[in-house]
TrEMBL record:
The protein's name: Protein TRANSPARENT TESTA GLABRA 1
Keyword Transmembrane helix belongs to the record: no
Keyword tRNA processing appears in the UniProt entry: no
UniProtKB keywords: Acetylation, Repeat, WD repeat
Xref: InterPro entries: DCAF7-like, WD40/YVTN_repeat-like_dom_sf, WD40_repeat_CS, WD40_repeat_dom_sf, WD40_rpt
Residue spans of the WD repeats: 160-200, 249-283
Family annotation (Pfam families): WD40 (PF00400)
Membrane-spanning residues: none
Domain of life: Eukaryota
Alphabetized SMART domains for the sequence: WD40
PANTHER family registered for this protein in UniProt: WD REPEAT CONTAINING PROTEIN
Length: 330
């Protein structure tokens, strides 16, 4: 990348920052009215979620007025707004929870707990809302399972032992197809029409190196991306050719923590990590011998823990680092 473009991107005139009293991790952005949910990351039981108002025209990002926030047990591992209803928010942590955003308050709608034996459950690492059938949410857990909920009925549609170890992330591809990644080092695809079988499409090159995150390309479902624990690589997979990555993006100088495909383009992906960088990549049709360079980069003030590239506001990327949440104009 040319030095001049690098310099201009570091000065990034089009970024908006929100500073929280707490370290931040989970992020979600809703369709109009544009709202951003930010979750605290405190190693205590008492955490919270705050709702911010985002005005892309006025370039403002500020706490919702009147204030909208709620206490959350443990740090939320993920937040998502309903694919088409900006007043419905889901969170994961000890359980999957649904929240109703009203004009002056946020009301808990449901706590979805599939543990038969007690009030306790294995913590949820992540979840994904099915855009094709929004009544479905899939969750991933440290107890090796993935659970598909019918949130309209408040019941479990199915629960699968998905992996040999903890499941760290889950992503829907189609109405009945999802994929997951695990501490066992594999990416597996499941089809609800054939629950007895799964397809392993990638395994860590070093045995038992956990895979932490999974992103499925919504613009071209042949492609997904994953990241390995303590690795500076983003691994791009083509589900038609399992086991061999089609590309490995290796320009981060430290561990990658988060990945997100562009919501409006099948060739672009963003990654962020401990090197404080958010990198945007354009995947070539054919990778050259020397690897792929990012097309643009942005430096945050410290390690970036979380990243969202939302279809609600496709021109903006949200990153969380330390106690700040920043929106970057793409």
């Amino acid at each position: 990348m040319e030095h001049s473009s690098h310099e201009s991107l570091l000065k990034h005139p089009n970024s908006i920052t929100y500073e929280s009293p707490f370290p931040l991790y989970a992020l979600a952005i809703s369709h109009s009215p544009y709202r951003v949910a930010v979750g605290s990351f405190l190693e205590t039981y008492n955490n919270r979620v705050d709702i911010l108002s985002f005005d892309p025209d006025a370039l403002t990002l500020k706490p919702h007025h009147p204030p909208l926030s709620f206490d959350h047990p443990y740090p939320p591992t993920k937040l998502m707004f309903h694919p088409s209803n900006p007043n419905l928010l889901a969170s994961s942590g000890d359980f999957l929870r649904l929240w109703d955003l009203r004009d002056h308050s946020i009301e808990p709608l449901s706590v979805l707990n599939n543990s038969k034996s007690s009030d306790f459950c294995a913590p949820l690492t992540s979840f994904d809302w099915n855009e094709v059938e929004p009544r479905r949410i899939g969750t991933s857990s440290i107890d090796t399972t993935c659970t598909v909920w019918d949130i309209d009925k408040g019941v479990v549609e199915t629960q699968l032992i998905a992996h040999d170890k903890e499941v760290y992330d889950i992503a829907w591809g189609e109405a009945r197809v999802f994929a997951s990644v695990s501490a066992d080092g594999s990416v597996r695809i499941f089809d609800l029409r054939d629950k007895e079988h799964s397809t392993i499409i990638y395994e860590s090159p070093q045995p038992d190196t956990p895979l932490l995150r999974l992103a499925w390309n919504k613009q071209d479902l042949r492609y997904m991306a994953t990241i390995l624990m303590d690795s500076n690589k983003v691994v791009i997979l083509d589900i038609r050719s399992p086991t061999m990555p089609v590309a490995e993006l290796e320009r981060h100088a430290a561990s990658v923590n988060a990945i997100a495909w562009a919501p409006q383009s099948s060739r672009h992906i963003c990654s962020a990590g401990d090197d404080t960088q958010a990198l945007i990549w354009e995947l070539p049709t054919v990778a050259g011998p020397n690897g792929i360079d990012p097309m643009s980069m942005y430096s945050a003030g410290s390690e970036i823990n979380q990243l969202q590239w939302s279809a609600a506001v496709p021109d903006w990327i949200a990153v969380a680092f330390s106690n700040k949440m920043q929106l970057l104009k793409v």
